[in-house]
Amino acid sequence: MSNIGRPTKPDKRGLRREYLAVRSRLTADDVREAAFALAGRALGLPELAHARTVAAYVSVGSEPGTLTLLDALRERGVRVLLPALLPDNDLDWGAYTGEGSVARVQHGGKMALFEPAGERLGPDAVTGADVVLLPGLAVDGRGMRLGRGGGSYDRVLARLERAGARPALVVLLYDTEVVAEVPAEAHDRPVHVVVTPSGVRRFPAPH
């Protein structure tokens, strides 16, 4: 049956390609300036002001930068956890204690990631976090997040739900990545806050 002439919703894979293409055109200066602005906005969040443990990640390439924020959190005395990708795409966790505590790890044909170099704390360590920073490519007006497609953070969110843990879910994005709608499935969960260089947007809790 032909779809010619019918408006079709873009699929997740096509959208991911589009957002990644836009990011790939950013200069190193663009990324650095945005990271500084993102850290300033995020550090003003009450959720982070009261957090004792934050599960985060080290940004790579032209992703919205996280290291400035991670170092500022550490200076505040916050315990920062970083993910390590497991062979089945689940995530283990380790502590971030500064620049020397991360190692660049190449995962086969996938991208190289910066992971905790020290002791691994197990996949359930994330359930003790007060805030979880989720990587993403876009968030829509409902708070639904478009991830990179590996499914790792779907597992994290399912683990939090099973444990009855309710950390604040925060996504750092560029301004153009807060959009009208992204494709969502029944199991997808909205995030609570999106931070961009120009502001903060909160999403009401679903009833």
Describe this structure in words.
The mean pLDDT is 90. This protein is 26% helix and 24% strand. Helix 2 (28-43) runs parallel beside helix 4. The protein is globular. The strands form three sheets. It has a seven-stranded mixed β-sheet with strand order 3-2-1-6-9-11-12. It has a three-stranded mixed β-sheet with strand order 8-7-10. The protein has helices at residues 12-24, 28-43, 46-49, 67-75, 152-163; strands at 53-55, 79-85, 91-96, 102-106, 112-116, 131-134, 138-140, 145-146, 168-172, 178-179, 193-196, 199-202. 32% of the residues are buried. The protein is α/β, with parallel strands linked by helices. Strand 2 and strand 3 (91-96) form a beta hairpin.
Structure, briefly:
By secondary structure, the chain is an alpha/beta fold.
Keywords summarizing the entry:
207 residues; 5 helices; single chain; alpha/beta; three-stranded mixed sheet; seven-stranded mixed sheet
Topology:
Elements: H1 12-24, H2 28-43, H3 46-49, E1 53-55, H4 67-75, E2 79-85, E3 91-96, E4 102-106, E5 112-116, E6 131-134, E7 138-140, E8 145-146, H5 152-163, E9 168-172, E10 178-179, E11 193-196, E12 199-202
